[in-house]
Amino acid sequence: MTTLGPDADAVTVVEELARRFQAGDAAAAELLHDRLRIQQPQSFPHGGWHEGLAGMQEMGTVFSTHWDREIRDYRVFGSGARAVQLTTQTWTSKATGRSATVDVAELVAVTDGKVSEIRVFQQDSHLLLATLAPA
Q1: DSSP E strands: which ranges in the chain?
Q2: What is the pLDDT of residues 34-45, one digit of tens each?
Q3: Is residue 91 a contact partner of residue 73, using CB atoms and an 8 Å limit?
Q4: How far apart are CA 98 and CA 101, in angstroms?
Q5: What is the CA radius of gyration of the chain?
Q6: Which of 33, 70, 72, 90 is 20 to 30 Å from 123 at the Cα level?
Q7: pTM beyond cutoff 0.90
Q8: E strand or H helix at 16, and its extent?
């Protein structure tokens, strides 16, 4: 496992976090700051601000009641304490079986070598929400 110190730049931290999440590595949580804040669009069932690891887990639980998700094409850009992660995501509604694919930008802040804030911007929230609507 890769160990990152408190001086690790945001790109390195975000790339390692993505690698661990993709591998299903429980050690991914080690790269999350105690004061982690995540913002999702308010229009989503899992929307709003989420605080700490418990908030992130709660957000994930709410998300997973509605959708399955495939994430691919990870790209990370930035410098210093800030990074942008771009991915392509396919969300599939558990209720309807319909899917939509969008690009997602995440603005990430790193403090003391750990992710302290993530602000998530889906390319088309209406398209994703439409997967939940009855036909």
Answers
A1: 32-40, 48-51, 67-79, 82-93, 99-111, 114-122
A2: 999 999 999 999
A3: no
A4: 11
A5: 15
A6: 33
A7: yes
A8: helix 10-22
